[in-house]
Design a protein that fits this description.
Strand content of chain A: over 45%
Distance between the termini of chain B: 36 Å
Largest sheet of chain A: 6 strands, mixed
Strand content of chain B: over 45%
Helix content of chain B: under 10%
Largest sheet of chain B: 7 strands, mixed
Mean pLDDT of chain A: 92
Oligomer: heterodimer
Order of helices and strands of chain B: EEEEEEEEEEE
Largest interface: A-B, 23 and 28 residues
Structural class of chain A: mainly beta
Mean pLDDT of chain B: 94
Number of helices of chain B: 0
Structural class of chain B: mainly beta
Number of strands of chain B: 11
Number of helices of chain A: 0
Distance between the termini of chain A: 41 Å
Radius of gyration of chain A: 14 Å
C-alpha cells in the first residue's frame, strides 16, 4: 500500500537554529514527493517538490528537502529557523496506479514551533 | 493574482439541509479536486475532475456530489449533510500535462460544522 509517514507530531526548535521535519514514504515506482505548509486559518501552500534529478531540492521561504532513495525519505530542512516558520507541515506523494487522477497521499502533518 | 478561492470559509448548518461549497480557480487548470481534512486521518480525496463534464470518485465520495460545467468552477454539493461530514474541506487544481508532475494549488479551506 502507498503511504507517507511523518514520525513526529511536533517539532520544537529555537529561532536561528537549523530545523528538520521528517518524512518517509512507501510507493511503487519512482516517487513524486511534495511538501506543503498550512498556516492557521489559511490553505495549504506549496513549498517544494522532488520529481527527478538532484536529490537536494530548494523551495520557497528558504526551505529545502533531501531525497534519499535508499532510506525512502524526503526530509524538509532549513538552515536557520524563523518564528514565522511556525506552522503545520505536510509531506505528500503522488499516488501511482491512479490513472489520470493526480491524487496525493498525505502524511498526517508535523506541527513546527519555532521559539524566540 | 493566480489563486483558488472557496466560499464560504466557515459554515454551520443542520442535518439534512442541502448546501454547496463553491470552488473557483483562475489559472486555466484542467484538473480540480476536493479533499477533506480530519484529525488523525489527514487529507482524503473526495472527488476529482479531469476537465469540463469529466468527474470521478476519490477515496471518500459517499454523501457528496460535484459538477464541472465550467473549467474554472468545481462546486461540492452535500445533498443531505450529516454530522460525520463535519470537516475542513480543501479544493485544489493543477494543469494536466502528460508528465503527471504538476503542482496542485489549494484554496484557503472551508470549515463545515453539521449539527
Amino acid at each position: 500500500a502507498q503511504s507517507v509517514a511523518q514520525p513526529e507530531d511536533q517539532v520544537n526548535v529555537a529561532e536561528g537554529n537549523p530545523l528538520t521535519v521528517k518524512c518517509t514514504y512507501s510507493v511503487s515506482g519512482n516517487p513524486y514527493l511534495f511538501w506543503y505548509v498550512q498556516y492557521p486559518n489559511r490553505g495549504l501552500q506549496f513549498l517544494l517538490k522532488y520529481i527527478t534529478g538532484d536529490n537536494l531540492v530548494k523551495g520557497s521561504y528558504g526551505f529545502e528537502a533531501e531525497f534519499n532513495k535508499s532510506q525512502t525519505s524526503f526530509h524538509l530542512k532549513k538552515p536557520s529557523a524563523l518564528v514565522s516558520d511556525s506552522a503545520l507541515y505536510f509531506c505528500a506523494v503522488r499516488a501511482h496506479n491512479a490513472g489520470n487522477n493526480r491524487k496525493l497521499i498525505w502524511g498526517l502533518g508535523t506541527s513546527l514551533a519555532v521559539n524566540p | 493574482e493566480a489563486q483558488v478561492t472557496q466560499n464560504p470559509r466557515y459554515l454551520i448548518t443542520v442535518t439534512g439541509k442541502k448546501l454547496t461549497v463553491t470552488c473557483s480557480q483562475n489559472m486555466n487548470h484542467e484538473y480540480m479536486s476536493w479533499y477533506r481534512q480530519d484529525p488523525g486521518l489527514g487529507l482524503r480525496q473526495i472527488y476529482y475532475s479531469m476537465n469540463v463534464e469529466v468527474t470521478d470518485k476519490g477515496d471518500v465520495p459517499e454523501g457528496y456530489k460535484v459538477s464541472r460545467k465550467e473549467k474554472r468552477n468545481f462546486p461540492l454539493i452535500l445533498e443531505s449533510p450529516s454530522p460525520n461530514q463535519t470537516s475542513l474541506y480543501f479544493c485544489a487544481s493543477s494543469f494536466l500535462t502528460p508528465s503527471t508532475t504538476d503542482t496542485q494549488y489549494f484554496g484557503p479551506g472551508t470549515r463545515l460544522t453539521v449539527l
